[in-house]
Amino acid sequence: MFERKHDKLASRVVFLRRVDASVLMAAGLISATLCIGILGYRYIAGFVWVDSLLEASMILGGMGPVNPLTAVPAKIFAAGYACSAACYLSRDSACARNPSHAA
């Protein structure tokens, strides 16, 4: 996929295309995960749209919940969503420390 150790470096255009593809892929993944969280908090927990956005953003960002949850299905959704957010955060932090984990 990329050049080997002894190959000639990719041109600037190729490099920028790779960066663009990576940014688009990351933005798509984050957007999809955020949308799942917003819809879950909206329809399962019964929050209004703005509170759903806030809750999903805080969980995905690793900050924790803002509003209390009273219904059991909402608590189960929040637990699953928080676990998936933790997986993203732990993978991203591992990749930041050691790029060989990114593969």
Query: Helix segment count?
Result: 3
Shape: elongated
Cα separation of the termini:
11 Å
What number is the mean pLDDT? Answer: 85
**Number of spatially distinct domains:** 1
Question: What structural class results from the helix and strand content?
Answer: mainly alpha
Biggest sheet overview:
none
The strand count comes to 0
Beta percentage is under 5%
pLDDT below 50 for ≥5 consecutive residues: which ranges? none
- Just give the CATH class: Mainly Alpha
What helical percentage do the residues reach? 55-70%
Order of helices and strands: HHH
Describe the structure.
Helix 1 packs across helix 2 and helix 1 (12-43) packs antiparallel against helix 3. It is elongated, with a radius of gyration of 18 Å. The chain has a single domain, classed as Helix Hairpins (Orthogonal Bundle). It has three helices and no strands. The chain starts with 11 loop residues before the first helix and ends in a 6-residue tail after the last helix. It has helices at 12-43, 49-60, 72-97. The model has no long low-confidence stretch (mean pLDDT 85). 15% of the residues are buried.
Main features:
103 residues; mainly alpha; 3 helices; 0% strand
Offer a quick outline of the entry.
By secondary structure, the chain is an all-alpha fold. 68% of the residues lie in helices and 0% in strands.
